[in-house]
Every structure is written in structure tokens, then in C-alpha cells.
Amino acid sequence: MEVEYSLLFETCKYYMGKCQISLGVVNDQFSQIRTLNSTEEPASFVQMINTYLVDVETILSELTSKSDLPNADYSKLVVLVHKLNEMSSSIGTELVKRACADLIQACDQKNEQRFSQALGWMKHEFSFTKEKLESYTKMEQRILRVKNKQQN
């Protein structure tokens, strides 16, 4: 059982460490947060990721509905995009953070077509990131289950 735990832990570490950083999905910030939480409270990091995913989906939904209104208020849209950017920076989701820059520019230009394209790109990048983070959380939850079995 100890071997299974070690193998799972190293696989998970490699998956998010080397693979996802090299793909640009996450950055070093993600790795640092994961390292801090893996020793103290690993389940809290999984919860942090899940909360991030739900919050981003909510913001993307708001951005979509507010941008579909006639005469969209770009000052309100940019506030949401900045919030999304801050959340993504703090957890280390690089692809989403980079997509925020395009959305901010589109808001600054008050360009409906550019905003729509940038929002579509953001949704694509988030979908890819979400898929990777969900795979990671599944691995992390498996590690926690194995670790709990060992302790019992």
C-alpha cells in the first residue's frame, strides 16, 4: 500500500509539475500552492481548485449574458474580467490568465466583435484548463483515499 501511495503521489506531482507547466496550463504559482497544501492539508487544495472552477464558470456566464445585451457596458465587463484575471493569477492557471489579457483589451476598445472573439477564446482555454484540473483533482483524491487507508 505504501508503494501505491508513493507511486500515485509522484505521478500526480509529475502530471501537474512538468507536464502541465510545459503545456502552459498552469505556472509555478500552482506548483507552489500545491506543495504548501500537500504537506499541510491536501484536501483543501482540491477544494480550492473546485471553487475556482465554479467561480470561473459563473463569471463566464455573467460575461456572456452581459455582453449579449444591446449597448453592453464594457466598464462592468472589464471589472469581471479583472476579477477572473486575479483569480487565475492567484491559483496559477496560465492559459486563462493569458486569455484575460485579450478580453481586457477588447473591453478597453469597446469592440463588440473583438470582445465576442476574445470571450470565445477564453471559454476554449478555460475548457482545456478545466479538463486538466479535473484530471488532477481525481488523482489527488485517489491519493487521499490511499493515504487514509494506510492510516487506518
Order of helices and strands: HHHHHH
Task: Give the number of DSSP strands.
Answer: 0
How would you sum up the global shape? elongated
Uncertain spans? none
Q: What average pLDDT do the residues reach? A: 84
**End-to-end CA span:** 12 Å
Report the total helices: 6
- SS-based class: mainly alpha
Let me know the largest β-sheet: none
Strand content: under 5%
Approximate helicity band: over 70%
**What is the C-alpha radius of gyration, as a whole number of Å?**
18 Å
Structure description:
- This protein is mainly α and 152 residues long.
- The radius of gyration is 18 Å and the shape is elongated.
- The mean pLDDT is 84.
Primary descriptors:
elongated, 89% helix, single chain, 152 residues, 6 helices, mainly alpha
Short note summarizing the structure:
This protein is an all-alpha fold and 152 residues long. The protein has helices at residues 2-23, 28-40, 42-67, 74-91, 94-109, 112-151.
Topology (SSEs and partners):
Elements: H1 2-23, H2 28-40, H3 42-67, H4 74-91, H5 94-109, H6 112-151
